[in-house]
Design goal:
The protein has a domain at about 70-195. It contains no helices and 16 strands. It has strands spanning about 5, 15, 25, 30-35, 40-45, 60-65, 65-80, 85-90, 95-100, 105-110, 130, 135-155, 165-170, 175-180, 185-195, 200. It has an eight-stranded antiparallel barrel with strand order 7-8-9-10-15-14-13-12. The chain has a two-stranded antiparallel sheet with strand order 1-2. Strand 14 (about 175-180) and strand 15 (about 185-195) form a beta hairpin. Bound molecules: zinc ion. The site of zinc ion (ZN) has 8 residues, from loops.
Length: about 200
């Protein structure tokens, strides 16, 4: 059963699309809300993200080869020299993953659920390598980023202007691996870089 929530800022009814969102942006007033025990808590206005043309759009279905997915949320991070978007997407079977879009480069990633031990942010150096589950990967980027806007619903809590550190790694066969360091939490995302021309509207 879809859950309906009422925006505390403007009274708009927001229909929840995913199993356990932790953050929702009201499409009517752009207020960003954290979801705490079924209640929405306003944490600030989100930037308007639709100013620039994008390959994806919320609540439309897209296809990459045999995989059909629908974006239900998006978060934009500024890394100083530009920004990239992380699209939170839902497959037909309910599986949730991420599609990252950075200046036309696209990676499909999913949260690594099992605890992976990774070095601290300070220990990793660009150009260095790291072996995770016997796969050797190279550190290609190390930076910090700021959340500048969001839309739809997201499975974690991040308020506008919050920052975190991240390390991007590249493995064989265009394997992508990202480590996010936010306060004491470390999240790893594993995926693959794909050819943007393989994406079509379903
Ligand atoms: Zn609202």
């Amino acid at each position: 059963m879809p859950v309906s929530l009422t925006c505390p800022s403007c009274g708009n009814v927001i229909n929840q699309m995913t199993r356990s969102p932790q953050m929702l942006v009201c499409p009517a007033c752009n207020s960003t809300h954290l979801l705490n025990s079924g209640r929405l808590e306003d944490v600030g206005k989100s930037a308007i993200l639709t100013d620039f043309p994008s390959i994806f759009e919320l609540h439309h279905t897209f296809r990459h080869k045999d995989w059909k997915f629908t974006p239900v949320g998006r978060v934009r991070y500024d890394y100083g020299d530009g920004w990239w978007d992380e699209w939170f997407v839902r497959s037909d079977n309910g599986k949730e993953s991420w599609v990252s879009v950075d200046e036309g480069e696209i990676a499909i990633e999913a949260l690594v659920q099992k605890g992976v031990k990774v070095p601290s942010f300070d220990e990793l150096k660009v150009g260095g390598s790291l072996i995770i589950n016997r796969i050797k990967m190279k550190v290609i980027e190390k930076n910090s980023c700021t959340m500048v806007g969001a839309e739809g619903e997201l499975p974690f809590k991040i308020a506008p202007n919050e920052t975190y550190n991240y390390v991007d790694l590249l493995g064989p066969k265009r394997l992508s691996f990202t480590i996010e360091y936010q306060n004491d939490a470390i999240d790893c995302y594993k995926g693959v870089w794909i050819d943007p021309f393989d994406i079509t509207r379903a």
